[in-house]
Amino acid sequence: MKPMNEEHLAILRRHMVEMIAIHADLASDELGKATLDERVMASMRRIPRHLFVPAAVAPYAYQDMPLPIGFDKTVSQPFIVALMTDLLAPQPHEAVLEIGTGLGYQSAILAELAEQVWSVEIIEEFASHAEALLRGLGFSNVAIRVGDGSRGWPEHAPYDKILVSVAAERTPPALL
Fold this sequence. Notes:
- By secondary structure, the chain is α/β, with parallel strands linked by helices.
- The chain has one domain (about 5-165): Vaccinia Virus protein VP39 (Rossmann fold), CATH 3.40.50.
- Helix content is about 40%, strand content about 15%.
- The chain has 6 helices and 6 strands.
- The strands form 2 sheets. A 4-stranded parallel β-sheet has the order 5-4-3-6, with helices on one face. The protein has a two-stranded antiparallel ribbon with strand order 1-2.
- Helix 6 (about 125-135) links the parallel strand 4 (about 115-120) and strand 5.
- Helix 1 packs antiparallel against helix 3.
- The longest helix is centred in the N-terminal third of the chain and has 21 residues, at about 5-25.
- The radius of gyration is 16 Å and the shape is globular.
């Protein structure tokens, strides 16, 4: 079988966004609305998720499921990325702090919607990979720092919004 080209991948991205829309509609009672913000959906259509996962799982990048990225970590499933972003509602004039960069997929989505994204990642290999990938894709409004996200990034505070894409038992006081 021949490898997928950009046209194939674009079709799969559109299909992924259609599936996100179906999930949002099905969860409309819980969400309080039947659709997610069109800016979020457009960003999900544009960002090439397959570049933000290891090559071994790239063929599955547009399925609505989390994927392993190494170090026992995953990239969130597309519906969750879209829902978190929709709930955050980043605006073009806002600065967003992201805790848990991973390989940068959520960072790229946020970078399309906010003025500046400051992202903290504890795993150095993830941070350097994400930084190079985001720069290569032309995102100049994302800064990544290696460190413990529970401490935030106080040098750039206050932030308009904070997105925590990692598990925490309780909200770290530094983020408040």
